[in-house]
């Protein structure tokens, strides 16, 4: 069973730590465990309960009323709300779908978001914060590899489906080759780059996960893209990543190198002058424009 600190709960539920403390004191809604140094710790059951409370509260149910409700009544009302397409409920629905391995809830929530906002805003405003929450849950061992793979693959399927709807742009003077370096399998960010560029009419070559370096150079020489774009999430040594791009700059002269992802941000100072860092969707499109 996972143990969450109150800051973890704040990130995962969106409820301020100060508010949680007030609810505990005023309504007795939770009685968290405490460490020897009196630090609050919360369980998976506490997290699930607060997600449900947040969902009800956002839909107009007062905290004072929730505090008096039986567990069965809370679950019944939450189930009713979960069936609605309201955008305000999206964050809680996504987390609940993850915890329950509920494909229908996740797909319906994601489809509603994309229908109302489009994939670009859905990814930046909802999926990126959701993936950040998953990261916190990983750190406290509250979700399994199976749960993470389950949700990641559902997102991956949806992004690929949205890309497929766009069709293939005409070849133009600006083209991009997208790839992940060898041993990096975290494809969601790169797929989103592919969607953004295709949606704006840029021609792209998508080479996907874990591409061997020799194959990358071969493709660059044959396809002659104007931009080579990658995403780095898997932890790497600073010397490795800087030497990688130094070599790539030598082997692919005249090609602009762009990269995003957590590892690029971590090593941004060392990579200065070697690549252009992609800090978000708006940055990527600005660079191409």
Which fold name corresponds to the CATH topology of the largest domain?
A: Multidrug-efflux Transporter Regulator, Chain: A, Domain 2
From the coordinates shown, what is the CATH architecture of the largest domain? Orthogonal Bundle
Strand order in the largest sheet: 4-3-5-6-7
The low-confidence runs, each spanning 5 or more residues with pLDDT under 50, are none
Q: What's the helix count?
A: 14
Number of domains: 2
Q: In angstroms, what is the radius of gyration?
A: 22 Å
Topology, number of strands: 7
The first-to-last residue Cα distance is 49 Å
Please outline the major beta sheet: 5 strands, parallel
- Structure classification: alpha/beta
Which geometry do the CA atoms define? Answer: elongated
- Mean pLDDT level: 86
Order of helices and strands: HHEEHHHHHHEHEHEHEHHEH
Q: Regarding CATH, which class of the largest domain? A: Mainly Alpha
Proportion of residues in extended strands: 5-15%
